[in-house]
Design a protein that fits this description.
Layout: E1 7-11, E2 14-18, E3 42-46, E4 51-55, E5 59-64, E6 72-78, E7 85-89, E8 92-96, E9 102-107, E10 114-120, E11 131-135, E12 138-142, E13 148-152, E14 164-166
Antiparallel strand pairs: 1-2, 3-4, 4-5, 5-6, 7-8, 8-9, 9-10, 11-12, 12-13, 13-14
Length: 179
Amino acid sequence: YSPTGTLLIPEGVGYSVVDEVCGGDRLAPDYPARFRTPMFRDITFDDVSGLAWLVDGANLWTLDISDPVAPTRLALQALEGHPVAVHRVASTLWVAALDGGLRAYDIGTGGVALSASATVDFPGNQARVLDVDGSAGVLYAALGNHGLGVVALGPDGRAVGEPELVEASVGAGRRHGLH
């Protein structure tokens, strides 16, 4: 348990990010202090390098998790928009940044030198990008009531071609996330 309510928990070969304070005595004197540090919203990692990237709504954190019981922060970088979800494909980090859109960042040497490489705009869409996930060759972006964004990816993880928008049907409900 962390007094901040933000945990990075080793789980076998992976990690789990817990981003909300659940339970606890809301009348306890230390309860408000739990909210004075960033609350991680999402994580993606690279098993080979032992690196993990986390977003907290304002920043991207780069951690060395090669020693799972003692993660080390390597870098902290402010990002545009409000980064709430992150997904790594090859040498590219994709970030869902709410009103900041869907943004791509090239992972530099050692995984800490990032440079913005692209912002994806979906046809006729001014929606917030709420989440991002993908698999080999394709990336998906949750766009709330506007539907689902689909981006074709090359081997380096960069977008190829034009993104597509799969519009939500009326009354289908809001798409908050992809996980």
